[in-house]
Amino acid sequence: MLILGLNMFHGDASAALIQDGEVVFAIAEERLNRIKHYGGVPALSIQACLDFVGADIGDIDHVAVGRDKDANLARKVQYALANPAKILNFIHIRKRREAMNDLKSLLGRAMEVDPAKMRFQEHNVEHHIAHIASAFYCSGMEESAGFSYDGSGDFVSAMFARCAGTEVEPTERVFLPHSLGSFYTMLCGFLGYRKYGDEGKVMGLAAYGENTYCEQISDIVSPSGTTFKLNLDYFMPLGSNSGMQISEDGTVKIQRHYSNKMVELFGEPRKANAEISRRDRDIAFAMQQRFEEIFFHLINELHKQAPSNNLAMAGGCALNSVANGKIFTETPFTRTWIQPAAGDEGLAVGAALYAYHSVLKQPHRHEMKNSYLGPEFSEERIRGALESTSLEYRRLDRQPLLDVVADQIAAGKVIGWFQGRMEWGPRALGNRSILAHPGLPDMKDTLNARIKHREWFRPFAPSTLIEHQSEYFEHDHPSPFMLHVYKIRPDKRERLCAVNHVDDTGRLQTVSREENPLYYDLIRSFQSRTGLPIVLNTSFNENEPIVCKPEEAIDCFRRTKMDVLAIGPYLVLKEENQTRVEEPVAV
Ligand SMILES: [Fe+2]
């Protein structure tokens, strides 16, 4: 049975293919069309799914979309009637979504295929049910509490659920306009970060702030019963789209969220690219602190409704790895499984698995043991891409490749590491990564100046051999998808200075040999040279979606000041670095 899962007409459009209950392929459209957070029809992703199993769209049995326009309709109507100014906005959005009503025609146009050739049955899965499904059904857990939270989806911003076997049973919804995602987006906008997906940047800034505004910021969102309420005086009226618009070209735009009350209380908002002031840092600090307080209130309440040691979680806010890292000390949950594509691209997997289990009553459970679900490229294809350039390259067997790359990382070089299948979700986890030494004091500045051009306050992440996690970090719950931030042990902070954030934390990826043998063995090789079972890992890109194809990796390598590219079995050195590769490196 082939089920195609889709997220479309929403940020981070994506497609996933489920074959007899196994997630065999999943990708966000931005990786293929190179438009960040693309929100149109994921036609290239659908084709990539089909190509992976050698099928065509006529072979698909079911298509599941992570959206149900009729879900929570009564609440939408009630809200629109109470806010007549927003009725036009609702009509506009519903009209746009009507384009999805005839899914076969829509896909026929996008894929240039006759709709008569399609025989699939359609399923619409409510946004947050799809999020929770994307976590629970992939988790390998027999039962768990389920939680999803984000800006909004199908008029809901958070959902509690009881999950067991093949069932996901929602127990509570938080309806718009109340949204913890909107709270974060509003304050990020006030701090000058107004692009879709900018929230993760500001999370890094919070650690530089102090408790100056916590009381004022607490007035913006408060616990209310089992959930929370926004103080709407601080927000612009945003309609049912929660202030997000998708342009005709598929780019996603965020409208201004903050009201004049914010300006009256805190002064003028920061302009994009302006200096970051003491005030901005302290607002970021208070924002993250209040976010965490409300989050822990929510999941402690969830635990009462769905008592379990296990928590399956997704939704854009579940990418808040600082909050995730504190779950084990602030709540009764002892085990988490967070979908690596926690944002809306993950809806494709969740909708398809929900259709498979809950609608079609199929019992076989898929366990997502790693996130390497995207395309990979043959050695021949990689060599072809290299041959079309003037770059000199050489082929190495596995161990010599690992030895040279480990030597180069140990020598302080910056490595482009392109191997195997691309990661699913926003994090590079050792297949489309830039790697460097985590213990060199200048490495963060070097990476920023030469390649990444990121804000100074954003930390780089450590990839850690899982067996050594608790020697270096204060928690031992694994973090295979780089979704937990933990304190680094005091005696290890200097040795990890390039990945140690200002608050002595690291957003780690734990690496087991089972999940990624090549990456694991590379880190081991680095450990044998330096004693450190950890490398610095950042995504392989330069202000663009993460590279997907060999040509994009080679382009990024050539236009930035990366020293080495290891692409499949091929090693490419920048000219000025060529003579150094054979030099022995001091251990
Ligand atoms: Fe969402």
Summarize the structure.
The protein is an alpha/beta fold and 587 residues long.
The distinct ligands, each listed once, are:
fe (ii) ion
Report the β-strand fraction as a percent range.
15-25%
Number of strands: 23
The profile of the biggest β sheet is: 9 strands, mixed
- Give the averaged pLDDT, no decimals: 93
| Total of helices | 20
Which stretches are low in confidence, meaning pLDDT under 50 for 5 or more residues running? 579-587
Structural class by secondary-structure content = alpha/beta
Q: How is the largest sheet built, in terms of strand order? A: 15-23-22-16-17-21-18-20-19
Please estimate the helix content: 25-40%
What gross morphology would you assign? globular
Compute the gyration radius: what is it? 23 Å
The CA-CA distance between the termini, in Å, is: 53 Å
Q: What order do the helices and strands come in, and which of them pair?
A:
Layout: E1 2-7, E2 14-19, E3 22-28, H1 30-33, H2 43-53, E4 62-65, H3 73-82, H4 87-98, H5 103-111, E5 121-124, H6 127-139, E6 143-153, E7 156-164, E8 167-175, H7 180-190, H8 199-206, H9 214-218, E9 221-224, E10 227-230, E11 244-246, E12 252-254, H10 260-266, H11 278-305, E13 310-314, H12 321-324, H13 327-330, E14 335-338, H14 347-359, H15 379-387, E15 393-395, H16 398-410, E16 415-418, E17 432-436, H17 443-452, E18 461-465, H18 469-472, E19 484-487, E20 505-511, H19 517-530, E21 534-539, H20 550-559, E22 564-567, E23 570-573
Parallel strand pairs: 1-4, 4-5, 6-13, 13-14, 16-22, 18-20
Antiparallel strand pairs: 1-2, 2-3, 6-7, 7-8, 9-10, 11-12, 15-23, 16-17, 17-21, 18-21, 19-20, 22-23
Helix pairs in contact: 6-14, 7-11, 8-11, 16-19
The structure holds fe (ii) ion (FE2).
